[in-house]
Prior knowledge:
The complex is a heterodimer. By secondary structure, chain A is mostly helical. Chain A has helices at residues 3-6, 10-43, 57-60, 73-79, 83-93, 104-120, 151-159, 163-172, 176-207, 218-223, 237-240, 242-255, 267-270, 280-305, 317-323, 330-356, 364-393, and strands at 128-134, 137-143. Chain B is mostly helical. Chains A and B meet through α7, α8 and α9 of A and α2, α3 and α6 of B.
Amino acid sequence: xxxxxxxxxLIVRLIVQAGAVILVLFPIAxxxxxxxxxxxxxxxxxxxxxxxxAPLAGFLAPLGLVGRIPFIGPFxxxxxxxxxxxxxxxxxxxxxxxxxxxxxxxxxxxxxIAMIPALTTVVVVPLGAYFAVVDGVSVLKPxxxxxxxxxxxAVFAISSLGVYSVILAGWASNSKYxxxxxxxxxxxxxxxxxxxxxxxxxxxxxxxxxxxxxxxSLFDAVQLQSGTGFHWDSLWFIFYFPVSAxxxxxxxxxxxxxxxxxxxxxxxxxxxxxxTEYGAFKWSLFFLAEYSHMIIGSAVAILLFFGGWNPLPWxxxxxxxxxxxxxxxxxxxxxxxxxxxxGKVFFSIFFFMWVRWTLPRFRYDxxxxxxxxxxLPLSIANLIFYTxxxxxxxx
Amino acid sequence: xxxxxxxxxxxxxxxxxxxxxVGLKNTVASAFALLLCLVxxxxxxxxxxxxxxxxxxxxxxxxxxxxxxLFIIMLLDAQGGDRKPFKKTAYxxxxxAFALLLxxxxxxxxxxxxTTGELGAIVPVGATLKNYGEQLFTTYLLPVQIVGFxxxxxxxGVIVLSKKFEGLEDIK
Lengths: 395, 172
């Protein structure tokens, strides 16, 4: 059935695969903005978007019931599903002014640069696993665009480039609020990158036990969390490295500019921070990039600490696949894995929004104090503790 | 075939970005050109299968060092709009340096010291992550320690230089 696809040249197949992943990631990032409106409304005890009709249905509404989707239409309307289309249409078609005082070339470049790291990191993030038969032996393979040895390092490297769009936007806007937002962003992202990197080192010290093949691959991290049987060394890493997971999540909030760390755009001080001068489609690109960063960051956190595509501790995907008889069907098993993984990612994004609408924003000096004087010493102490512990354990 | 194409693409890209770092009038634009140049170099590393080096280059230099450059440029508000044009001596010394570099590369090429056979015989130390780590902590442990010590001294120096000592008059 898929023979024609595998007969295509490699480069065409890679482009098709990458395009498919982006085509899925992009609408999810857009849907997150709608989810944020609904969840913020729910947390604040108000309805949120609940009036928007299906696209173009407004023109048909005067004709009676023609414009309405039967039965489920009012329900979907209440859910605010169509708000997504309305927002998308608005951002695409409204006037896109470029203020006279900005540096035009860099002003337009900044939102484009925002999308590049956000969409590039997904290349090394595995999304699921399936059994493939290699030389007569069936082995578990990751569903990933590029299965490289340095997966985690590549994620960190590329996502660290995300800061430039914010700096560039702040600088090119040529206004003091945007500029302050850009400067804050660069200081904040560099500060929390340190703690983030140090927090995952114990995990990879554990993975790279002596005699192993030495890897930073995210797939191998999940493989070590896929043990069966109620044995202590096959648990998810959150149970071994709770402090690492905590530091990683806090740093992730800071790295993705989410509240309570949304210093670069804190409305009460800086109007809207780095995107003060932006509007319409360019503004929405910044937000798509922010949600893409959240999705990728959540995905990495889940792969490292929350068992990746394994449904429960001690019940890995392979066991589940045998229970529901899909272990010999790579396509179905892959889909089950991706569904479990994406379910966890969606919950993580819900958690992001939950925190945003629950906690008040830090002051800027508190952000710096937390990053340098609390989180960094904690992550160094955590690293030393686990280094000694792992050394003693493996002796 | 295709890797040749990508080599030329990224080589031209890197050189153009490097030229822009020197040539651009605006300091911030120069810093961004430096960023592009580093990304181009790391792409060349990827073509050589040195993935670790490529990722580290992007992570450390493109991700952190250039961001710090920009941070400082913005803090000092060094827009660089009224930079003086290059002096004649700068052009001459630049030309001489370029000529020397060209002679060096040409002499390697002419003598044919690095043939593919010998290159193939060299063990690629940094090819895999494990190999790289082992070499770093066995053969090259002393250089690593020395570099780490130098960085520590530099860090302490920065702290001492930038700290505002309260009540300094009393000491004097």
